[in-house]
Amino acid sequence: MNILVTGGMGYIGSHTCVELLQAGHTPIILDNLYNSNLAVLDNIAEITGKTPVFVQGDIRCRETLDGLFAQHKIDAVIHFAALKAVAESVQKPLEYYDCNVTGTLVLLQAMQAAGCNTLVFSSSATVYGSENQVPFCEDMPVGTATNPYGSTKIMMERILQDMAVANPDWKISLLRYFNPVGAHPSGKLGEDPNGIPNNLMPIICRVAQGKMEELLITGNDYDTPDGTGVRDYIHVVDLALGHLKALDKVVQTPGCSIHNLGTGKGLSVLELVQAFEKASGITLPRRFAPRRPGDIAESYANVDRAARELGWQAKHSSAEEICQDVWRFLTKSNKR
Ligand code: NAD
Ligand code: UFG
């Protein structure tokens, strides 16, 4: 299939393009390189032996999208492109609503005009909010967002569900990711955000590289086994493979489906830090700090529906494999 991959140069998108190419699909990447760089294209080519079509452009540009749909016979869209930094979204709400919500609306309008009605969408466990109890299940009510980033994901899910009601021939898959981590086992692709990282694993990497002085463990007084926050860390290769399964399913399923992509198990900050120290042989300077505003104690998925309906489950997401792959990426790609 010819797949338009928005945000395909980014962390999850690039890993998904590798799996698409290896499965015989043809990804066509649209990315404005806001949070990625051109080297990713060479790295995808080195891994797969194939260079995907890449267009540098913005999802908010209707002309660019119309050109892509006119030039390629696009069978489906995987829509990763978004701004994703929670704290930044509080400072810059307009930029987040514009990129994420306006961007999705323009994409949908272009799809509709081109007669392309199959979409896989990057949603997030953030939509469960703080009201629901773990493990989070797809049929729980959506919670309340504590930041504009989370609000954009809730709004986009809603827009896509409304689209499916209004257009019964549309096929939409909402994938709720838990905490994506890890790197490609080749060491050629991984998470390398532009600017100051927000998430635990990229921060661990910066501390290991000596680019940040210490890791602040934000909260050790949660009601969890060791007092630190518990998350469902999912290897990015597992996540990428989940998109291929979702794609296979969605092309034959009109309507809008929702699936959690996680492991079903929680890991604490301390457990992840210890696994990283073991994989790297580095002791990370760290200390406990107050809780981050808006954080919840625990987040992990019920993954029954993805197993049952998509035939997908995480296979590479042990803390050991995740940390070994991240460490290989840091060392092999001279990111240290
Ligand atoms: P990323 O920042 O690495 O990748 C996003 C890509 O989209 C980047 O290459 C960026 O340059 C591009 N982009 C951003 N705005 C664009 C625009 N207007 N037009 C064209 N390209 C644009 O992020 P990621 O971690 O790969 O996340 C991918 C998707 O998954 C996002 O929608 C994100 O919200 C969602 N998600 C991520 C996480 C996570 O922790 N990484 C968790 C849940 C959901
Ligand atoms: N943490 C630290 N120190 C840090 C950063 C994080 O101890 O410097 C802790 C957090 O308190 C949390 C855990 O590490 O317990 C994970 O934090 P992340 O920021 O890596 O991930 P979150 O679960 O907070 O957020 C992620 C995505 C969001 C998404 C959310 C819910 O970044 O986009 O999952 O799916 F909304």
Structural commentary:
This protein has helices at about 10-20, 40-50, 60-70, 85-90, 95-115, 150-165, 200-210, 235-250, 270-280, 305-310, 320-330, and strands spanning about 1-5, 25-30, 55, 75-80, 120-125, 170-175, 180, 215-220, 230, 235, 255-260, 265-270, 285-290, 300. With about 325 residues, the protein is an alpha/beta fold. Strands 3-2-1-4-5-6-11 form a seven-stranded parallel β-sheet, sandwiched between helices. A three-stranded mixed β-sheet has the order 12-9-14. A two-stranded parallel sheet has the order 7-10. Helix 3 runs parallel beside helix 5 and helix 5 (about 95-115) packs parallel to helix 6. The chain is globular. The chain starts with a strand and ends with a helix. The structure holds nicotinamide-adenine-dinucleotide and uridine-5'-diphosphate-4-deoxy-4-fluoro-alpha-D-galactose.
